[in-house]
Amino acid sequence: MSDIQYGRIIKDGLWEQNVVFAQMLALCPLMAVTTSGTNGLGMGLASTAVLVCANVLVSLIRKVVSAQVRIPVFIVLIATLVTIVDLAMNAWLHELYKVLGLFIALIVVNCAILGRSESFAVKNGVAASAVDGLAMGLGFTGALVLLGLVREFLGAGTLFAQASQLLGPSFAFLEVQVPGYGGALLMILPPGAFAALGFLLAGKRIIDRKLAEREAASAEPAAA
Amino acid sequence: MTPATLTAQTVASPHAHGGNSVSRTMFRVQLALLPATLYGFWLYGWPAFFLWALTILSCVAFEVLSLKLMGTPRVKATLFDGSAVLTGWLLAMTLPPWAPWWVAVVGGFIAIVIGKQVFGGLGQNVFNPAMVARVALLVSFPLPLTLWVAPLPMSTLPTPDFVSSLRIFLTSLPVPDAMTSATLLGHAKTELARGIDLATALHAGPDLSWIGMRAGSFGESAAILILCGGLYLLITRVITWHAPLAVLAGVAIPAAIAHAVDPGRFLSAEAHLLSGALMLGAFFIATDYVTSPNTTTGQIIFGLGIGLLTWVIRSFGGYPEGVAFAVLLMNAMTPVIDRFCKPRILGRDRKGKPLDIPENA
Amino acid sequence: MNLDTLRDKLGYQPLLLGIVALLASGALAVVSDATAPAIAAAEAKDLRDSLSDVLPAGLADNDFLKDTVELDRDGKTVTIYRARQGEALKAVLFKVAERGYSGEIQVLMAVDMDGRTLGVRVLKHTETPGLGDKIEVKKDNWVLSFNGKSLLDPTPERWGVKKDNGVFDQFAGATITPRAVVKAVKGGLEFFTAHKAEITGQAA
Amino acid sequence: MGFMNLFKHFLGDDWGVHPDDRKRPAADRPLRVMPVPEKLYLPLQQHLGGPARPVVLVGQQVKKGELIAEAQGMISAPIHAPTSGTIAAVTDITAPHPSGLTLPAIILAADGRDEWIDCQGCADPFALDPVEIGKRVAAAGVVGLGGAAFPSAVKLTGAARSKVKTLVINGGECEPYLSCDDRQMRDRAADIVDGIRIMLHATGAREALVGIEDNKPEAIAAMQAAAAAVAEVHIRPVPARYPMGSEKQLVQVLTGKEVAAESRTFDIGIVVHNVGTALAVRAAIRDGRPLISRVVTVNGNCANDPGNVEVLVGTLAEEVIAFAGGLKGDGIGLARRVMGGPMMGMQIPHWRVPVVKGTSGILAFDAQEVAAQEPDPCIRCGSCVKACPMGLLPLEMSARIRNSAYDEAVGIGLKDCIACGCCAYVCPSKIPLVQYFVHAKGELAAQDRNKLRNDATKKLAQQRQERLDREAREKAEAAAKRKAEREAAAAAKAAAEAAAKQATETEGESA
Amino acid sequence: MIAAILSLTVLGAILGIALGIANKFLKVEGNPIVDELVDLMPGSNCGQCGYPGCVGAAEAIVAGTAPATCCPPGGKALVSAIAAKLGLTVDLSALGDDGPKIATVAEELCIGCCRCARVCPTDAILGGPKQIHNVFREACTGCEACIEKCPTEALVMKPVPVTLQHWVMPKPRLA
Fold this sequence. Notes:
The complex is a heteropentamer of chains A (224), B (361), C (204), D (511) and E (175). By secondary structure, chain A is mainly α. In chain A, 70% of the residues lie in helices and 2% in strands. Chain A has one domain (6-223). Chain A is globular and about 60 Å long. The model of chain A has no long low-confidence stretch (mean pLDDT 83). Chain D has a domain at 12-33 and 126-297: NADH-ubiquinone oxidoreductase 51kDa subunit (Rossmann fold, 3-Layer(aba) Sandwich), CATH 3.40.50.11540. Helices cover 39% and strands 17% of the residues of chain D. Chain D contains 15 helices and 17 strands. A 6-stranded mixed beta sheet of chain D has the order 1-14-13-17-15-16, with helices on both faces. A 4-stranded antiparallel beta sheet of chain D has the order 2-8-7-4, with no helix packed on it. The relative contact order of chain D is 0.11. Chain E has 175 residues and is mainly α. In chain E, strands 1-4 form a two-stranded antiparallel sheet. Chain E has a two-stranded antiparallel ribbon with strand order 2-3. The termini of chain E are far apart. The mean pLDDT of chain E is 79. Classes of the chains: A mainly alpha (224), B mainly alpha (361), C alpha+beta (204), D alpha/beta (511), E mainly alpha (175). Chains in contact: A-B, A-C, A-E, B-C, B-D, B-E, C-E, D-E. Chain C binds chain E through residues 8, 10-22, 24-26, 29, 33, and chain E through 1, 4-5, 8-17, 19-21, 23-24.
């Protein structure tokens, strides 16, 4: 296990194998939460925390767990972790909990977390799993924030509304209001989430194609 | 001659064609829409004309843009099939006559890009593009989309001239209160919500009119002219009677029953039939080839579904009008209807098993 | 000991799953124990904060969270918090609910002893964002327009939105939501008037 | 579109299409008989089933009507010399087939004398045993002249065996442009009725229903006059509608019975023959003459002088056209060459393709007639569904075939498609629907062939393995045997030596 | 609290037993997908793929150690069939396949050495010693095993000729 390429893992998590844009997982929390960039950020960070912990734990016990009971074991682990996060936030980060409370429990059913446990942590060491969890979590957060921002901007004409409630008053500068634009309500509603996600997916594919073309173009003279 | 050079251009039979074409069909539908459209211009003046023209223009522009972006080689052929023009036209017919310019542009974008091209272009869309745009606009911008202007020949104010019409269209300034008016359905819904009996409410409310002397969308007002267009389409065989009749029946039957039971709570069948987008929906939207079932049985089910849902939404839903929502819901059902309503294959029973061979034939 | 051979044994599965379940529930028990007081405190603070939101500052000096009376309203129990200055009852706070455009709207209101509203806040709602959510004080000052209103001011037939010839504004594009809130507040005032004796504890 | 059609359209009883029939003026021109050409090209397969096997040698002299290729297999038909002459070659020529591929044919150089061999006619066919009639029809190489070219004798004897009650005679000729059946019904009505009576006798059917589309009033009148005296032959005008001439549709309109899928008309007591076939059967029985000529319609906007021509089988289309007045402007503006009708006929690559027994028309189309255009995307208008006479969903089938989901297409009825072309005819997007279906059927057949071939290969490989094993085993056994023999010999030798030694020893001892 | 912990633990143990038992009794032996692939393959066990026969190749493809394109006699058709079955995406254009080919004997070069006939996996080559050999078109699978055995290069691979019986109407160009 010495030949783990951390760069590869990070790149996969953030872009190539992005939970939302490449694997199309975790769409339920995605649709429910991304009515604003702030919500997306909060949910993303909470998910990242759970993802890292779950990956580390699963990686630790991977040699003990037998194939027959691995899914119940993972599910119990993840549910426990989420409940602990939920309780802890409620107790000690109460203001943040008021913004995100509804969505924390949703992390249990986030298939991306079980998915990473099944496909990565169970096969790799603790360090690699932690990095993978972090990269995947940040990729997920990025996607949530991006989709939240798009929907918020088109739907309400604001950016990062209420960010100061999540991150503290010093982040109030993030909050932007477009003057004179009332917003298209559809984008805040669930159908808007699907439409926006569709266009973002198309955008990623276009970027990927452009990147592949550039790579091919730069590889050619080297080969010749 | 070698076989290879010969096989290059193989064409199967038939070697004759009936002469029907996509563009001819689209042209006929547009022709059928013309009387109601012209009448709409007369009712609502220049702003309605600007809205109509810009909606069509933006639909065509977005069509060209999408085709260019997708790198389709047949931009011209696809453009001249007239489908984008028709989508824009139908959308414009359902908009409030004095809606501002950006409604037309955003509507064109939603109809063509989101409603049609994203699904793969002509023939591939699941939902009727014009109705997708109509619903998306209504949900997104409820304010300008529910601002109805009274037909000008009925209003006390003079008709705006060309320049002031342009100003109304481009600046989206609020329309003076004296010119606005509620639609019959909207009025009934508001009064009912206040707990006022319909019999009393309709005394003061807008009248029913076969010739569009009431507030409403720019192209929907004159039920009689829409009906004429529909009959023209029936006679030229562009559409069949199944879907339109089913839509009208689907609204009229429950409406008549409910009205007979409780006239204070439910509008009459006539009021339903002559209101909102029902006539337009029955003859021009429910008959959309792409998004309706293929078989006549399927079309009847589809039409009844639209009618019934329209009545349910109008009577119990949050919005006063429900044709567009009903159409979209039934569009989503179309593949299911198509799956279960197949024509019987000659020589087979409905399940596809060969017929029994009679013993003593 | 060879794990590989052990893992496929029949007894291994229940043992493993049992241990994991034991550890998980144990961990949860510990965390739950550790967080319970903090959560209770935070929630009490929340309630106090929201209650004091509708209650003008300095009106009460008691811990009105503890001074409650429970009444039955249409089959549901309503908890009424009583704010006192010294022994004198100054105001009561309670929640009312009404069906809005899409689901229930929960409203917290404070009423003084003359039946005047001291403050109204929407606690919870599922109205369309951007359209019906102007009833939140964060979005709009609209709910403040209830301050100082009573059942006689305005007169009962004027207790409605402007579209229904009332005194309260409606928002552009949404009539149902403000109508529901107005109805809720009016209902709350009627409830207060009807049960004033029980609330003040004079009946008891 | 008459008012009645519009009414039917509203009722939904609207299968098939109503193409402009374009039969006149060709149908009204008198039948012309083409003289014997210099060379005749006779493909060995002019019928459904196994190809015929040549029984003549190159250079051999044959007389008109002489057997030159015999039937091979149960479903096949022999071929006879259409005129007297010398066999010039047996070689590959371009087939009357859309692929433009070649197929083996006998080339006959005419000697101009046009000498018949001795024909064994029969004065009273009704005295013959039905089985004998079947044999004679088979020997005369008669095939269905409506287009499919199914060997007629197979149908006649099959019908007799399955106790058929009704003989349906197909005078529908629903294909536009074609009028060869129309012309023959006008000119040879009495002979046709005679042929029908022979067929009634051969099949054992009680009555014959002759269905003729109502756009051929002259033919109906002529046939009614000829059949007036024959009680068991009924002339039944049917509405002109394509594909009325399709077996299942005609049977349904005439008898009200529906032919079950995956079965034949025999199963409901009906057999269907073409009017032209009736004439050929009559000639085969009454005169003992084999099928060596047929009537062909030359038509299309590019044809100078459209009309019907009686030609010998094997005549090149080129020569038929030349005889019938040639092409306008020597073929300028010619867009497509078609053999058969416009709806189901096939495009041919050039005119040097012979007329075969099933050729009903030679059509020279200009661009305006074929209306070839780039297909547009399907708009799901459902025209094809309404037009399909079989009740299929052409748009759904073509969409699946487009994605190569052939099995799914079969699941929704591809096998029931009769390739009549109604769907493609009405399609506003001009999608070549029939081509999709023909392609899919070919592809499925190819897959079946591949599967058979794979199984055969596996069997071969297995047999080879068994053979190798057996050989190895035999070799081993032989080796073992040899070894055993050798050992036995050695043991015997050793024993003998030992014995000898012992003998000497004992001798010595004893000595 | 104790009750919650205990009940969860017992529940876990019971579920574990259930899963263990299910695993014991519902186990699927062998891999059915391999058999399906074997059915698709030519079945001549020619060995061009480098695996022991078609079964070996099928196992390797299912295991992912061999590409779907490893069978030359199967050609494009086989590759797409395998890809469809396994849900793979395969670049067909890389496969230089121009239709099925079979071996043919150039009669003027054949010396009748019988070497080719001995290696043919389907016994498709016929011919006695010192006689010109012939290939049965229907039996040849195009495995090319015979080609390199021929001392005179009399065996060449040629495309299977298209006949009227084998012709398939081309698919219409996509609109």
